[in-house]
Structure formats: C-alpha cells, structure tokens
Amino acid sequence: MTTSASDVTTEAAIGAIVAAHRGERGPLLEILHAVQAELGHIPKEAVPLLARELNLSRADVHGVITFYHDFRDAPAGRTTVRICRAEACQALGAADLVDCAREAGSPIGGTRADGSVTVEQVFCLGNCALGPSVEVDGKVLGRMTAERLRSVLGEAVTS
Amino acid sequence: MTPDKGQDMTQDGAPSMTQDPNCPVRVYVPRDSAARSVGADAVADAVRRAAGAQGRQVDIVRNGSRGMLWLEPLVEVVTPDGRVGYGPVAPEDVPGLVGAGLLDGAEHPLRLGVVDRLPWLARQNRVTFARVGIVDPLSPQDYERHGGTAGLRTALALPPAEVVAAVTESGLRGRGGAGFPAGIKWKTVLDRADELKFVCCNADEGDSGTFADRMVMEGDPFMLIEGMTIAAHAVGASEGYIYIRSEYPDAVATMRAAIGIAREQGWLGERILGSDLSFDLHVRVGAGAYICGEETSMLESLEGRRGQVRAKPPIPAIQGLFGKPTVVNNVLTLATVPVILANGAKAYQDLGVQRSRGTQVFQLGGNVARGGIVETAFGVTLRELVEDFGGGTLSGRPVRTVQVGGPLGAYLPASMFDLPMEYEAFAAAGAMLGHGGVVVFDDSVDMAAQARFAMEFCAAESCGKCTPCRVGSVRGVEVIDKIVAGEDRDGNLALLEDLCELMTDGSLCAMGGLTPMPVRSAIAHFSDDFLAREEGTV
C-alpha cells in the first residue's frame, strides 16, 4: 500500500491539532473546527485518525461530523456565499435572492464546476433588523438586493 | 440602572470641551456585526482619513451598537452637549460630513441630535443593555466606570445562598424562551454536594428575529462574564462554558478577547477579586445545528457529541455537563444578574407586570421600518412595539402578521396587537413570548408557505431522536402541500391538526413540541391562505 503526500499532510495536521487540544474536556468539536480551518474540509481519512487519537469509534466520529451542517467532506469553492433563509429575511425577499443565485448558475447547496463559488443556505445570521442578509466569506452583508448579489457572484466567478 | 450621564460627559466629553484642535476628538463608530454589515468598518476608515485631511486628531472608539439598527452605521461625536449622532452614514458621506463640521457636532441633514435624548431611546428602560453602545466593549476601565463589577463585588461579600435568594426574589426568569425562574434552577445546583459543578451559557441564538445575545457579547462582554462568575459563586461551580453559534464569529472573537482581559484583571481565575472564589471560563463554538440551542442538546454538543436531545429527568441542574450539576442559562439571563446584585432584587422586581418581572429586551426585525433593540418593562403591547417603535413595515405596505418568539412562535394577526408582552398573557392567547423576538411581515406574505416552512425547518433541523419530530415534520410538509393543492382539504386539515396535537404532546423537546404553534396559528388566523390555489399562483 502506498501512502500519498496528502495522507501524510492530513496525518501530520491532525496530530498537531489533537495535541493542541489535549487536556480539554470533550474536544471533538473544537478539533473538527480546527481541522476544517487548516485543511478546508474534513477529509475521509481523518475519521480513523481522529478515532484512534481520541479513543472513540469511527462511527462516533463519523456521526458527529455528519450531524453538523458546518462540517464539509469536500473543499468549498474559493468564495463561499451563504444566503439567510430564516423568517426575518423571508419577510424581506430572501426567496428572491435564492432565485437570483440559481439563475446566476449558483444554486443553493452547490459548488460551481470551476471551483469558484459555493452557495449555501443558512438559518439566521443575527442581522434580522437589516435583512435580507448574505454572508460572503464570513463577512455579513445586510440590506442585500438581487442586483448586488448578482455582482457579488459575478465577481467571485471571475476572480 | 442607567449609566451616570454626568460622569459619562466629564469622562468622555473632556477632550472636546476644551475645543483644543490638538486634543483628539472622540468619535464612536460601532463594531457590532449589524453595523459592519452595512459598512461601519469603511465608515471608521473614512472618518480617520477625512479628519487627517483636516489636520484634526480623532480617537475612534469601536463601540457596540445603540440598537437603533436602521440608523447604522451610527457615528457619534463627543461634544460639550453630549454624544451627537449622525446616521445612517455611508462611507461616501463622510468627507462631506467632516467638511460640514461633524467633529464639532455641526448641523447636517444626517445629524440626529444628542443620541441619549432621541425619543426612541429615551422611551426605553435600559437595564441589561445599559452599557451596550455606550462603552468600548473591551475596555475594563470603561466597564468599571459605568458600574461594572459592582454586582460581583456585592455577591462575593454574601454567602452563596443569599445570592441565590436575591436572584429568586428579583423574579428573573430565563430569557432564552422558556421563562423558567432562574433562582429555582440555581438553588437546585447549590443544593448538590458534588465537588465539580459547571455554569454554562447558552449563546446558540439560532432563532430568526433574535440578535440581543449577539449584541451583548459584541457590545458588553464583561457583563456576561460577570454574570457567570456570580452564578459560579452562587452555586459553587469552578468552570464555565459559553456555547456560541458559529454564525457569530465576531461574538466569538470578542468574548475570547474579553475573557483574556478579565483574567488579567483578576475577574476570572484563582481568588477572584481577592475572594476565595476560583472560576475560569471557556468559549466553545457550535457547528450550525439549530437544535443545539435546546439545553440538553447543547450539553451533548459541549461534550463533543452529536447534538441529540436528552430525555429529562434527570434535569441538567442535577446531571448536566459530563453528568455534573450544571446551571444552564441564556446570555440575557446571566447578563442581567450583575445589575440585580448591584441595585438589589427589589429594584428589578419593581419593574414589570404580574409574574413577568423586570425588563425584557424586545428585538424588532423582519419587514420593519425601525428595527432594533427595545428594552422596556414587561407589559408593553405588541402594537406599541410594531407601530410606535417599529414604525410599521419597511416596504410601506400594511402589517399583516408578526411572529413572536422565533420560528417556533405563533403568527399573530393585527387584531391581536393589543396583547401585553408578558409570558402568561401570551400563553393564554395560544402564543409564546419566548425571547421577545418580533418579526414583522407585510401583506404580501403567504401564510400557508410560512406554515410549510415551519415544518420544513423542523424536518431539516430535528435531531432525529424522537419520532413525532423527526417523522411528523416530514409528514407535515406533505399534508400542507396537499391542502394547498386542494386535495381533500377538510380531511387533510383534520389530519394536520391531529399531527400537530401528536407532535405537541409526544415530542421530547420544544423543537417538535412547538413547531405546531406557527402552523396552527397560521391556520387559525389566516385560513383563507390555505384554500386551494389555481395552477401557477402558488
């Protein structure tokens, strides 16, 4: 069996992250956040490594990763756009933003084939008085309009 | 408690009172993420540049938000009269504003006047939010100058049981939605003999229409730390966790920074403020699961597991985090504790009506002209909130409904807007006050679609542990689709009612148990929306 370079990277990254969280109570979520921050996603080969390091079953680790919406098993696009679809933003036309993204070729839940943009839905960004809200690479943008979203998506595709 | 305005003026106003051009003018531009979402960072940079171009020195403080969110970014300038506000300020407005004399509080179409005297704020009774928007959130000096640590100092001089008694007497009820008396929960934990106990703060503010927890964490983080430390002293806990949702990265960063500063100040750690209390605090970040706002699910998540709801009993006060006695309270509940200790239980108890004592931090959102934070004593009516404070809809169309208490709260028609905002009155009306979030909709809303969304959301976010919630929500979506399609309308409405009853009575937690509330209220008050649609009108 050969070991690819990426496996080695994953193993080294996970070893370092687990070591940094040694001594914390119930650290799996913190560790998963750190793995995703480091590697951009949580690769499949991370599951047995984490199980071994934390003395958990692989099923336990897999169960936690798949329970939470934040953890992804494949890298996101270079830009991640999250459209809030919760009630306060619905009241100001969140559905139109979802339609706008789909018409621009970036439907919710997908990454464009060129790897430029991932569009996701999110339920509440805590910006309910200045909706509808969209988050672009972690930055919340309030009072979003379809026109502005089209330009955000357009810029992300060409960048 | 309101901050001492006179003191505020001398402290903050001193530099500009001299009118010395070499003395920096203090300018406040919020760092709150709502303000940042509409350009506050760019405004702060523009103010710095424009002042520099005029050869004026400015001291820009990134404060929390005053909660008048429709005026964000709200720029405040310290003048001899007080803090003069301008808003909403776009980055491109700044050169003109500074040119017109913003740094001296001069007239301009965007000038709002002295912010403390604006009627929208002056009509409120800011108790929990007294410092939010006023102080630099990460300045311990500002915090103490505005009354911070007074509650903790009072508490540390009292035996734990007396602290618990003060919280009980104040009438403080859990602000997360359930409204359980905080003192009773604390007493249960205090009475346990365990060596290890925890204080956990539920900052998984996932309900749409709520943002007060976020604003406290971003705008006055030491207050939450102080409240948790008082709780630790009251129940004998040594370790605390704040579980913040991942959608709030600014709140996470501010809380982590504040905890570090609090340790340096001796407000956390060993022998806090020279007392025998040792207590330390950690931030944990959620991962996008709405259900983790349910307290037992949050505890599972804090333990590093799937956020699946636990059956109760045992209650967390007896077997909570890692099986140990645990206080679990919402951000606003814990953040209100310091002022209760500082000013006495009676001062807090004197506010409010019936069994809803003190103030509630109402949050106006959705399609509303003037959205933001309205903190006032319980008993204010929905109409006062939506019409007087909120100014009706942003779209200018008539208000058709408001949803109170988050995605699991009822949709109320305008005919019920005279309901007083208190727990029991809402419960009697088949609704829920919850955490006081109010989401406004105009007359373009389709209530069958909102009811369907409630079920769809439950299906997406159910933890899966109990069948009524996991399966019932999926069936609920299907039945509503059939009703709207005109398929055996009466039969399917009866089926939906039966399903709602089963979910209400049979679900383990509030997720499945309360999802029927928006559904049933939509049917009860807006039944016309559930009539069959013509093809193409859905």
UniProtKB/TrEMBL annotation, chain A:
Gene3D superfamilies: Glutaredoxin, NADH-quinone oxidoreductase subunit E. Keywords: 2Fe-2S, Iron, Iron-sulfur, Metal-binding. [2Fe-2S] cluster binds at residues 84, 89, 124, 128. SUPFAM superfamilies: Thioredoxin-like. Binds 1 [2Fe-2S] cluster. Coiled coil: none annotated. InterPro entries: NADP_DH_HndA-like (IPR028431), NuoE-like (IPR002023), NuoE_N (IPR041921), Thioredoxin-like_sf (IPR036249). It comes from the Bacteria. It holds the Pfam family 2Fe-2S_thioredx. PROSITE patterns: COMPLEX1_24K. Its cofactor is [2Fe-2S] cluster. Belongs to the complex I 24 kDa subunit family. This is Formate dehydrogenase subunit gamma. It comes from Streptomyces spiralis.
TrEMBL record, chain B:
Residues 448-493 form the NADH-ubiquinone oxidoreductase 51kDa subunit iron-sulphur binding domain. Keywords: 4Fe-4S, Iron, Iron-sulfur, Metal-binding. CDD domains: TRX_Fd_FDH_beta. Residues 1-23 are annotated as: Disordered. One of its GO terms (molecular function) is NADH dehydrogenase (ubiquinone) activity. It holds the Pfam family Complex1_51K. It comes from the Bacteria. InterPro entries: NADH-UbQ_OxRdtase_51kDa_CS (IPR001949), Nuo51_FMN-bd (IPR011538), Nuo51_FMN-bd_sf (IPR037225), Nuop51_4Fe4S-bd (IPR019575), Nuop51_4Fe4S-bd_sf (IPR037207), Thioredoxin-like_sf (IPR036249). SUPFAM superfamilies: Nqo1 FMN-binding domain-like, Nqo1 middle domain-like, Nqo1C-terminal domain-like, Thioredoxin-like. Belongs to the complex I 51 kDa subunit family. This is Formate dehydrogenase subunit beta. It comes from Streptomyces spiralis.
